[in-house]
Amino acid sequence: MTDQRYTALVLAATRGNRDPLAEAGGVSHKAFIDIAGQPMLRRVVASVLDSGRVGRVIVQIEPGSTEEAKAILAPLGADGRIIFAPSADSIGASVARAAEAFPEALPMIITTGDNALHTGDLVRYFCDALDKVEEDAALGLTAASTVLAEYPEGNRAFHRFRDGGYSSCNLYALLTPRAVEAARIFNSGGQFGKKPKRLIGAFGLFAFLVYKTRLTRLRTFLKFLSRAIGVKTAPVVIPFAVGPIDVDRMVDWELANRIVGERETRKAA
Predict the structure, then answer these.
(1) Strand 54-61 to strand 6-11: parallel, antiparallel, or no bridges (unpaired)?
(2) Which end of the chain has fewer CB atoms surrounding its CB within 10 Å, N or C?
(3) Pairing state of beta strands 38-39 and 34-35?
(4) Where are the domains of the chain?
(5) Secondary structure class of 136 (helix, strand, coil)
């Protein structure tokens, strides 16, 4: 196995003061909702640790939720490898804060507290691919054909290009100090697939128009964006259908419970 060398940043903060999923789950925080018998945050952190490619995990969450998060993650038995840090007002600001507070953390992978379906194998695949990346940053995506072949009910937002559709796995990597500068593109909240007009604010009108024409291939478009922000970014296509299915809505929560429940039933058989 390749030596562990990545730090994982788990972005677990909520958006706003009221979260319908947290209320429906009877918990104080969206990341604490139950997924097939375990809190979602525990499943996310476990997937990162189970990859065998991560030496340390930084969990960014609101200060008022830190103690509860510590209790939720305690059963993983990885206290010395898990660090808690306060989140900022936006995704971009949170990433920048983490990079500043932990300058030795690069190279860093970034995941989110609602990636309940990610597994150690999926995270390992991403990290193994990163070993060969020469760019400053990378993002994980799964082809639409892969997702829809297994989960047509997943209702993902796809980026459409000449070589097909892709959906973000909410899995990113900052590989060089220059990559930290790219975090600013998430200050508007990211989720460019669900709200592609955010590309205008992040990259400019021309980038948005190129995106909408669907005349370029994925890698070509990323090269264009890389020039726009001055940070070379590589795509990592992840062949796991569950990769882009995060838990943002009730329908996602129901789907995640079913998938994880079936997965664990097969494992126990």
Answers:
(1) parallel
(2) C
(3) antiparallel
(4) 6-140+168-180+231-268
(5) coil
C-alpha 237/C-alpha 14 separation (Å) is: 27
- What is the sign of the dihedral through the CA atoms of 89, 94, 97 and 101? positive
Count CB-CB contacts under 10 A for residue 134: 8
Nearest by Cα to 226 from 127, 164, 139, 103: 139
- Give me the count of residues in the chain: 269
Whether the predicted model's global pTM rises above the 0.85 cut: yes
How many other C-beta atoms are found inside a 10 Å radius of the C-beta of residue 110?
Answer: 25
Q: How far is CA 260 from CA 70, 142, 144, 146, in A?
A: 23, 19, 21, 18
Quickly tell me which residue has 């008022």 as its tokens: 64
- The whole-chain average pLDDT of the chain stands at 86
List the one residue out of 25, 237, 255, 57 whose CA is nearest residue 156: 255
CB atoms within 10 A of CB 118: 28
* HEC sequence for 138-202: EEEEEEHHHHHHHCHHHCCCCEEECCEEEEEEEEEEECCHHHHHHHHHHCCCCCCCCCCCHHHHH
**Angle between helices 120-130 and 40-50 in degrees, nearest 10:** 50
What is the four-CA torsion angle of 167, 61, 94, 257, rounded to 10 degrees? Answer: 0
**pLDDT higher than 70, residue 101:** yes
User: Within 10 Å of residue 175's Cβ, how many Cβ atoms?
Assistant: 21
CATH code, 6-140+168-180+231-268: 3.90.550.10
Residue 145: how many CB atoms within 10 A of its CB? 12
Per DSSP, what are the bridge partners of residue 6? 54
Phi and psi at 150, nearest 5°, equal -105, -35
